[in-house]
Amino acid sequence: MAIQAQRIRDLNDGDPQAGGSYVLYLMQQANRAHFNPALEFAIEEANRLGLPVVACFGLLDGANGFPEANARHYAFLLQGLADAKAGLEARGIHFVMRKASPADIAIALSDEAALLVLDRGYLAIQKRWYGEIVKAAKTRIVQVEGDVVVPVETASPKHEYAARTLRPKILKLLDEYVEALKPRTVKHKAGRGLPKSEIDVSDPDSVLAGMTLDREVAPVKRFTGGESEARRRLKAYLAGPFRSYGNDRNRPEAGAASHMSPYLHFGQISPVEIALAVRESKAGAAEDRASYLEELIVRRELSMNHVYFTERYDSYEHAVPDWARKSLADHAEDERPHRYTEKQLAEGETHDEYWNAAQAEMRVTGYMHNHLRMYWGKKILEWSPSAEEGFKRTLRLNNRYFLDGRDANSFTNVAWVYGLHDRPWARRKIFGTVRYQSENSLRKFDAKAYLKTVGELCKAESEAKPPRKSG
Predict the structure, then answer these.
(1) What ranges make up the beta strands (E) of 99-241?
(2) SS3 category, 50
(3) What is the pTM of this model?
């Protein structure tokens, strides 16, 4: 029930600010009102100091918007924030939302705060915000990890070579970290005199309509944001499709995926909460639970390890290992039977109907099954004029259309296509000794059934949206 000490870090040497009016929590990565270690820590400290809790969120917009985020991403984010706001206020916590960077709103509101609590993310932009806050805020700052099961530095002090090297380090710590988090009672409810919110996110559609952003990639109906929806989906999943996860996880047409990745990306559900629910599930067999937890914890946290210990994780030169870049360079002049422009790839205009279907699922609904993501990425490498250009294209398409794009998993999975966390394989054209994936991999599932499923999903999206106005 306690928050593990390894999740908590003091970011400066300050004491709580005398005369502070509240404890401030910057809700930046963990966008939820429950099972949130940073929020529970803020409540504990507020109770100890006899103060209310103020949670805040800085909404990036216009020229200062989150890099590569568009209407699809912001719609899901705002739906989640509306749910979080309702949950916070039901607990007696004041919520403030303004158009500002996370750093700017935290710094501005910290002037009246006895204590500033941050949650944690591992991307470069998040690290930059934390640095700005530490430099400018004058009160005590504490950061509490709530986005991974085992904190990155606790699991490993270095960049891990592969899942097989990180796995034993994480598994020996799981029992310590997969624990329920008891919700604290807010003893001092929010009252008058607290900072005012400039945005009422209770109506997320209205907030979205008032933003200046890329609207070419539309919001999707397949997924609705929010911790309530995440829990509803998880409960339904564990009661049904999870029963066949071990056997069907690599079959895109089988419906065995949980679709938790967008909710994890936006911090709308805790990975520990999911792990507990999976462990306690009576539906799946032991192998189903083990397979799911491998993906949720080991594979996901290998990605966190990669972006944390790689300064330029979005760069081909820095993210792809030396041996792979050398091998790909040795084959840079190999003939490429098929070459496509990035626009052709985005529109799914290739000779491969199965690749086109996977691209359509991503472009229209914001999701693609993991098994097809691997095939999808390998083909972009094969069909691009160079490995470097293929890397850039894969990352741009990934970040533009996937709901969970711009995530540690995204950056790591794209680099995996080019050799990260892998070993040399048999040499072949274009790929050199980087792992190749052929059309034969499609034989492992019912590809025709997948085509039908994608057609139905895309039709459902098109029928749910009003036609786009011309001009």
Answers:
(1) 113-118, 140-144
(2) coil
(3) 0.96
CA distances from 365 to 291, 400, 402 (A): 26, 12, 8
Q: What distance in Å separates the CA atoms of residue 421 and residue 293, rounded to the nearest whole number?
A: 19
Structural domains in the chain, sorted by start: 316-464 (1.10.579.10)
Which of 420, 442, 169, 392 lies closest to 297 in space, CA to CA? Answer: 169
What pLDDT tens digit does each residue of the chain (471 aa) get?
589 999 999 999 878 889 999 999 999 999 999 999 999 999 999 999 999 999 999 999 988 889 999 999 999 999 999 999 999 999 999 999 999 999 999 999 999 999 999 999 999 999 999 999 999 999 999 999 999 999 999 999 999 999 999 999 999 999 999 999 999 999 999 988 999 999 999 999 999 999 999 999 999 999 999 999 999 999 999 998 998 898 888 899 988 899 999 999 999 999 999 999 999 998 878 889 999 999 999 999 999 999 999 999 999 999 999 999 999 999 999 999 999 999 999 999 999 999 999 999 999 999 999 889 999 999 999 999 999 999 999 999 999 999 999 999 999 999 999 999 999 999 999 999 999 998 888 988 999 999 999 999 999 998 876 544 433
What DSSP character marks residue 297? I
Residues 319, 159 contacting (CB under 8 angstroms)? no
Structure-token pair, residue 147: 């986005």
Residues 6+ apart with CB under 8 A from 447: 253, 354
